[in-house]
Amino acid sequence: MTDPICPLCLRPIPPEARQSLHHLVPRLKGGKGGPTVLLHQICHNEIHATLSEAELARAYDTPEKLRAHPRLAKFAAWVGRRPPGFHSKTPGGRRKRR
């Protein structure tokens, strides 16, 4: 069986890699029971460090839209050069609160 592919960085997710499910529409914004995707934990952390729940629900509810976000695209290119099991603290700071 082949490893699942992370829809953000497009690397395989080996069984030993830190991973988590991401609700494409946040649960708090009506996504409970909605579609989820399996991500590397580092990719999931970066999504939530970059976008608010409202932004995710409003404009970033598909893997394609997430990959098109400038900060997430830059992150995906960076992490894509790491081994599939790579994990570290989320680089960069959290999004700026408004």
UniProtKB/TrEMBL annotation:
This is HNH endonuclease. It comes from Pseudooceanicola nanhaiensis.
